[in-house]
Amino acid sequence: MRFVWAVAAFVLAAVMIGAGIAQRTVFQGPDSETAAVPAHESTPYVMIDGAVLNRLPGAQTLRAQADGDIFAAYGRTADMTAWLSDATYTSVTLADDGEIVAETVVPEPEAVAEDDAEAEEDTDAANPGRNPAGSDLWLDEFTQTDLMIAPLQLPSEMSVIVATDGTEPAPSTITLSWPIPNATPWAGPLIVGGAVLMAIGVLLYILGFRHARRARGPRRKGLPLPPTEPIDVAVEGEEKGVISASGPTRRSLGSSRRTLVAIPALAVSALLFAGCDADAWPELAATPTPSPSATVIVPEGQQSPAVTKAQAERILSRIAETVAQADEDLSVKTASTRLSGAMLETRTTNYTLRDAISDYKTPAAILAKPLSIVLPQAYDGWPRSVLAVVDDVETKTSSIMVITQEDPWSEYELSYQASLEADTPMPDLAPSYIGATQVAPDSPFLIMQPDQVAAAYADIINNGDDSEYAGLFDAETDQFRLKIESDRERRLKEFNETASKTGSLTFSSKAGSEEPFAIATLESGAIVAVTVEESDKVKPTNSDAVIKLENNPTVETLAGVEQSASGFTTTFLDQLFFYVPGQGSSEKIQLLGYASDILNAKVIK
Where are the beta strands (DSSP E) in 486-562? Predict the structure, then answer.
């Protein structure tokens, strides 16, 4: 009976193992589906819409083939469309019936030019042949040679652009592929179960074999021999008295043992075939439940954030690299590609001074990482801005800055930068994936309009606690104001010791010419960035006296003269960041960060 059960176990094991292996081989379907982008005209760019990328569920794999370098990038569809708005390109979309279609998009003609020359300029502008590589709009980009293979996992609101260099035609061979679920969750259990049954069959076979040998019983004895007759047990041809073993030799025993071992080895091979592939096993573990996080309600109708955190890190790194090169070369042209506003003005002055004064101080490098705060403007149009805070690990300080992009084709430029005061508490801000709206300069929803903050603070610098605005600003945490007062007292004292009888030194402050920047916080307040200009005037009080710049190479370099009978004006540009509470708040306006650099020096007319 044991042999019957052993045979049954072998048969069932073979069926189970065969079924499991078949699931993983002949019966397993394809693991991906591929769709080719339809043939299209030779245009410099191909934009694949997010609906095409999400034609099937799962991650997407983009493949493109052409001679030379192939470029691909992804970003928001609205941003990509804006970047391509003045160029001819191929748009790949999904038709209503689910078919992938490609069509050529030609930019709309602008207003009719007054003459043929202007018309020709407009035609050239419509086909600029821009290289898409390195644009700040892309969330990520890839460049490969001859064959592009880019794994993606993009939502429907994002698209992909494929090109070469923006001038030559884009690759004509482009395909998209998606994974197809072809898991065989019962293949593993079938193979393992078959292996177990095979082992049981082997055990039953061994037990049956042992039982059969024992069941033979003792052999029947022959007739008794006379007691005096010797027993001859020798085999013919052998020495008498030597008993010869009639069982199998060691060689035959070894062969039998290997035969028995070969059966479980087949089971082990089946187990190895099943391997540790998760697709061959059922999903038994419970799906982990994500931990709850703080809820931030997105205002109705709010637009998308300008950048992601990873995108902001990449943009700031590019800005830092470019400005570092400009600082080394003293190149205003290079700096102007990544700096604007107050940052470009003060850098220009620094390059002039360093070119004339060998030991003049190099400006502090632009910090790019690590980013501790990224607050992008939630806006689909242009110009768009981002507020960022970058920590300096070495000095244990932080820099707060504003970067702005004027249009889809421009690079982000750093317009404001200041150092945060030590232990400055930042107001509650929206997360980077939501962003915040930019506050209008004349917004009445703050305790002070953003376009009035600079003038009010300048008045406080000039008049101290006697200023009408002194009660609106928090003086206890304002270290910058104390530094200005201390510096002015020191300089005035030094001046009066030598030149009080022949000249005068006066100080004044006013709002800077830069447009204020304001972005909303979660408490209905705003972070406001402004500039203030501080001026020092030195002029003679005696008609026979002149102001000489013997020990002031900085002013001498900027003014271009060594002395003046009318005097000199030196201007410093302050970049200031404030937190301005919303209307109805009992809080005061708080200074968050500041920076001060010399702007110019002139002869008083």
Answer: 503-511, 517-520, 526-540, 547-548
State the number of CA atoms in the 13 A half-sphere of 373 facing the CB.
20
From the list 557, 554, 512, 559, the residue with the least C-alpha distance to 532 is 512
Asked whether the beta carbons of 593 and 563 are under 8 A apart, the reply is: no
Rounded to whole angstroms, the Cα distance separating 548 from 556 reads: 9
The contacts of residue 438 (CB under 8 Å, 6+ apart) are 377, 379, 385, 517, 518, 519, 520
- Which residues does 252 contact at the CB level (< 8 Å), separation at least 6? none
Q: From the centroid of its chain, how far is CA 89?
A: 27
Residue for token pair 């072809």: 182
State the Cα–Cα distance between residues 432 and 297, nearest whole angstrom: 13
pLDDT tens digits, 516-534? 999 999 989 999 999 999 9
Tell me the three state secondary structure of residue 75: strand
Beta strand pairing call for 45-48 and 89-94: parallel
**Cα–Cα distance list, 447 to 12, 107, 140, 149, 460 (Å):** 83, 46, 41, 54, 17
Q: What's the residue count for the chain?
A: 605
Token pair recorded at residue 36: 């080719």
3-state secondary structure of 376: strand
Alpha-carbon dihedral sign for residues 83, 85, 90, 95: positive
Indicate the pTM of the whole model.
0.78
d(CA 126, CA 108): 9
pLDDT tens by residue, 8-54:
777 887 887 777 677 667 666 566 788 998 877 789 999 999 999 99
Count CB-CB contacts under 10 A for residue 560: 10
pLDDT (tens digit, 9 = 90+) per residue, 409-466? 999 999 999 999 767 889 999 999 999 999 999 999 999 999 999 999 999 999 999 9
Report yes or no: 198 and 264 within 8 Å, Cβ to Cβ.
Answer: yes
* Burial of 65: CB neighbours in 10 Å, binned 0-12, 13-18, 19+: middle
Distances (CA, A) of 565 to 553, 561, 600, 605: 18, 11, 19, 10
